[in-house]
């Protein structure tokens, strides 16, 4: 089902698209900006749900700023945002809040996950590949600082032609979190600079 929605005081508009038969049966959502479905190779952002950051503006992570940057960019350049219901890197909201308590005791985000008997990352990008295939999309330009995300999509049969970096939204509140993503999850982020490193991203 597709429904048009205005975003952010009518600055942006997108089509919200729902799906049947996704592999994990969760309610993942696609936002289609402009005529992205008519482009040969659309620009795509995979954003994993973060209730605390996306909705309430929690400063513990950079999810909110990344989501707003993505919608602005995708609106301007035309593309798709796949909003994946994989809160807390897939461990769920309550477990993420438990992990926050451990982080406040000195652990980083990945150590806290393991202390709760979770792996570093439980997200499954097969649903994203399914959503793209439902649109008939087999090749994309991917907006991400995480090369592993492109690799997972490739493994699911989606060709990633180019990987484009997102901006860096570092603050004193989220610096430790971002540093852990660089150190432990191979994110390509220049935390000391103002933009993500351009490694591997042809213009
Ligand atoms: Zn977040």
Question: Could you give a quick summary of the protein structure above?
Answer:
By secondary structure, this protein is an alpha/beta fold.
Topology:
Elements: E1 2-7, E2 12-17, E3 29-33, E4 43-48, H1 51-55, H2 63-77, E5 79-84, H3 93-104, H4 109-115, H5 126-134, E6 139-143, H6 147-155, E7 159-164, H7 175-185
Helix pairs in contact: 3-4
The structure holds zinc ion (ZN).
Report on this structure.
This protein is α/β, with parallel strands linked by helices. It has a single domain, classed as 3-Layer(aba) Sandwich (Rossmann fold). It is built from 7 helices and 7 strands. The chain has helices at 51-55, 63-77, 93-104, 109-115, 126-134, 147-155, 175-185, and strands spanning 2-7, 12-17, 29-33, 43-48, 79-84, 139-143, 159-164. Strands 1-2-3-5-4-6-7 form a 7-stranded mixed beta sheet, with helices on both faces. Helix 3 (93-104) crosses helix 4 (109-115). The termini are far apart. The relative contact order is 0.15. Residues 196-203 have low confidence and may be disordered. Residues 50, 53, 61, 63 line the site of zinc ion (ZN). Zinc ion is lined by residues 50, 53, 61, 63.
């Amino acid at each position: 089902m597709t429904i048009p929605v205005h975003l952010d005081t009518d600055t942006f508009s997108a089509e919200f698209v729902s799906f049947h038969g996704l592999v994990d049966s969760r309610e993942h959502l696609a936002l289609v900006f402009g005529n992205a479905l008519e482009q040969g190779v659309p620009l795509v952002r995979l954003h994993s749900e973060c209730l605390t950051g996306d909705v309430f503006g929690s400063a513990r992570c950079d999810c909110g700023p990344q989501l707003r940057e993505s919608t602005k960019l995708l609106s301007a350049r035309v593309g798709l945002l796949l909003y994946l219901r994989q809160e807390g890197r897939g461990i769920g909201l309550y477990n993420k809040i438990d992990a926050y308590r451990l982080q406040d005791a000195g652990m980083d985000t990945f150590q806290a996950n393991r202390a709760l008997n979770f792996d570093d990352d439980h997200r499954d990008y097969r649903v994203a590949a399914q959503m793209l295939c439902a649109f008939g999309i087999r090749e994309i330009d991917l907006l991400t600082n995480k090369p592993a995300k492109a690799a997972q999509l490739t493994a699911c049969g989606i060709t990633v032609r180019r990987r484009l970096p997102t901006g860096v939204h570092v603050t004193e509140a989220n610096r430790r979190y971002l540093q852990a993503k660089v150190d432990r999850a191979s994110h390509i982020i220049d935390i000391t600079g103002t933009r993500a490193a351009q490694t591997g991203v042809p213009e």
